[in-house]
Design brief:
247 residues, 10 helices, Cytochrome Bc1 Complex, Chain D, domain 2, globular, 2 domains, mainly alpha, binds heme C
């Protein structure tokens, strides 16, 4: 079994229980649907309410652009969403169906305790706009989780500044100050990371930094930062980034 499959096993089990809890409690709490299903879906894409968790600070658009062009040179951990409805598989082939693929994001990143079920208003709403956004990129997206972590060669800090801006700044804000960060939960880099890991040697801290970027919350790391696959962030870019971060 690939490490990625093991990654996705636990939430699947949690959701089975969650789905039953939902059926049994027959919750009468209706979501607020602004206008049509389409409008509701677009609203869900841009609002943290795509998860009911008070502690969620992400929207779908934090990590996904609509198309590769609309990513505007940003390095986003998630694939463009246009065309997703027509793709044969998701998460690098680990997830067969679209709604479970979305629920992976909601569970791991957005702290949603219960998956959207197919008949639910939210699921239908997301479908409504995804159907319209269908034509682009209908083939499966190449994505593979990086399993075991190894060091990367020394990089260039100047190039790393650009990588940081494109891949990390949206959530972590400016280097050294964190100004503009998405939440105080995203640590100020590198200071808060160094303070958290002062008992480690510089070499081990570097490897921990690499592991965080490659695994996100998966494979035992925890937290809610998304993983960056090599398809979106190469080892050379990561090397430059580490030089910029001083790790
Ligand atoms: C914190 C970042 C993050 C957030 C927030 C997030 N995702 Fe994802 N999503 C990812 C990553 C990383 C992947 C795995 C790489 C990939 O396949 O796109 C992924 C995968 C997916 C996929 C599978 C894409 C494919 O073709 O493999 C879909 C569909 C998806 N997300 C939809 C959503 C929707 C809808 C939301 C909002 C409800 C959302 N995501 C929120 C990061 C995120
Ligand atoms: C979508 C938002 C998001 C993006 C993009 C993001 N991070 Fe994070 N990062 C977080 C959050 C939230 C945390 C704190 C929670 C956690 O550990 O997952 C975090 C934590 C970290 C940590 C601390 C890990 C620890 O154990 O103390 C490091 C280092 C880090 N991020 C580096 C990066 C780098 C480098 C990039 C760019 C490649 C990046 N992050 C991109 C949201 C993000």
């Amino acid at each position: 079994m690939t490490p990625g499959l093991a990654v996705l096993r636990n939430p699947a089990r949690a959701w089975l229980l969650a789905a039953w809890a939902l059926v049994l409690s027959a919750c009468a709490c209706e979501p607020v649907a602004p206008g049509s299903a389409m409008a509701h879906g677009l609203w869900l894409r841009e609002h943290p309410q795509a998860s009911p968790s008070q502690s969620n600070f992400y929207t779908c658009s934090t990590c996904h652009a609509l198309t590769a062009a609309s990513a505007n040179a940003r390095i986003l951990p998630g694939a463009p969403l246009a065309g997703a409805i027509a793709r044969p598989s998701f998460w690098g082939g680990q997830v067969r169906d679209l709604l479970p693929a979305i629920n992976v994001c909601r569970f791991w990143f957005m702290d949603a305790k219960q998956p959207w079920l197919p008949e639910q208003a939210e699921a239908r709403a997301v479908w409504a706009w995804l159907e319209v956004a269908a034509p682009a990129l209908p083939e499966a997206v190449t994505w593979s989780a990086v399993g075991s972590i190894s060091d990367v060669p020394a990089g260039q800090a100047a190039a790393g500044a650009q990588v940081y801006q494109a891949a990390c700044a949206n959530c972590h804000g400016k280097l050294h100050s964190g100004s503009g960060r998405i939440s105080k939960q995203a640590p100020i880099l590198p200071e808060e990371f160094l303070a958290e890991h002062q008992e480690y040697s510089p070499q081990d801290r570097r490897l921990i930094g690499i592991e965080k970027v490659r695994h996100g919350p998966f494979l035992g790391y925890g937290g809610r930062m998304p993983p960056f696959a090599r398809q979106v962030l190469s080892d050379a870019q990561l090397a430059d980034l580490l030089a910029y971060l001083g790790l």
